């Protein structure tokens, strides 16, 4: 089970690690910012150990490897500020505010990079092709994370002249999934892949003959159900005040899909988009000027 805060966990287990792994732990705790950004070679040199020792350390503290370790470390650094420290930040400590912003930004960067590394380009291309040729696309998501991403995704495709809608209500998801037909696409967004409403709606859409796509975690139940699984290895935030990296990674993938679809549009459709953009005062695809 993932630990709630990797930095605290390293402190707790450091003494029980092997000597080489303990040297890596001490180096990480001494300079967390360096550890989040350094390569495996740089980490090994500073800790005065071999590169395999760095990898063994990462696994010893619960990470799958260096990439996963760095992302979890960045999340812990961003979300691990205790309440007392948070009170000091609100009182106007510019130094702590700057550190907080840096840590959150680093967690986001590491999370998006981690997600990109786990995404299969061939599967991404298949998803973009399915969206570009769909008669209509229904996005399903629930909650403040996946639900908002679903709504953003539908808006982006609408501006590409694709009939798209987003449904975040369980009853409406099942209802509209039952209306889909061959040539349509049902697109589920759920990082955990355990949402009962979303999974049932996707199953209904698949039985109706629609192409099913999911933006979800590798190994989730949802990933096994759909035709085109876009798998992202992004650990969920373990604390309420940790940055929502999964949501941002999802938005990045949706952006990339929208751009990929736009690149395959005909000149006539592109002209329609420009005219609609001019009439609405939109700055870019999916973005409305306020």
UniProtKB/TrEMBL annotation:
GO terms for biological process: glycolytic process. Residues 4-80 form the HTH rpiR-type domain. InterPro entries: Homeodomain-like_sf (IPR009057), HTH_RpiR (IPR000281), RpiR-like (IPR047640), RpiR-like_SIS (IPR035472), SIS_dom (IPR001347), SIS_dom_sf (IPR046348), WH-like_DNA-bd_sf (IPR036388). Keywords: DNA-binding, Glycolysis, Transcription, Transcription regulation. It comes from the Bacteria. SUPFAM superfamilies: Homeodomain-like, SIS domain. The keyword DNA-binding applies. GO terms for molecular function: carbohydrate derivative binding; DNA binding; DNA-binding transcription factor activity. Residues 127-267 form the SIS domain. This is DNA-binding MurR/RpiR family transcriptional regulator. It comes from Paraburkholderia bannensis. The lineage of its organism: Bacteria, Pseudomonadati, Pseudomonadota, Betaproteobacteria, Burkholderiales.
């Amino acid at each position: 089970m993932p630990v709630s805060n990797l930095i605290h966990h390293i402190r707790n287990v450091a003494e029980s690690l092997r000597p080489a792994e303990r040297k890596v732990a001490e180096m990480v705790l001494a300079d967390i910012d360096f550890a989040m950004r350094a390569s495996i070679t740089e980490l090994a040199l500073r800790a005065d150990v071999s590169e395999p020792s760095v990898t063994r350390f990462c696994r010893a503290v619960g990470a799958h490897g260096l990439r996963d370790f760095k992302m979890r470390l960045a999340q812990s650094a961003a979300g691990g500020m205790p309440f007392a420290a948070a009170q000091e930040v609100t009182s106007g400590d510019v130094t702590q505010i700057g550190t907080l912003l840096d840590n959150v930004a680093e967690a986001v960067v590491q999370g998006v990079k981690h997600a990109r590394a786990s995404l299969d380009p061939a599967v991404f291309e298949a998803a973009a092709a399915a969206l570009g040729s769909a008669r209509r696309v229904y996005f399903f998501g629930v909650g403040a994370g996946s639900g908002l991403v679903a709504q953003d995704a539908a808006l982006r495709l609408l501006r590409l002249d694709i009939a798209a809608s987003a449904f975040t209500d369980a009853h409406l998801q099942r209802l509209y999934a039952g209306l889909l037909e061959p040539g349509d696409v049902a697109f589920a967004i759920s990082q955990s892949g355990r949402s009962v409403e979303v999974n049932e709606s996707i199953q209904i859409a698949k039985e109706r003959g629609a192409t099913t796509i999911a933006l979800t975690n590798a190994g989730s139940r949802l990933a096994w159900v759909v035709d085109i699984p876009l798998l992202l290895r992004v650990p969920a935030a373990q604390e309420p005040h940790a940055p929502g990296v999964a949501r941002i990674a999802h938005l990045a993938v949706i952006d990339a899909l929208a751009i990929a679809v736009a690149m395959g549009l005909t000149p006539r459709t592109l002209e329609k988009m420009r005219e609609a953009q001019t009439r609405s005062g939109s700055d870019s695809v999916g973005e409305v000027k306020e």
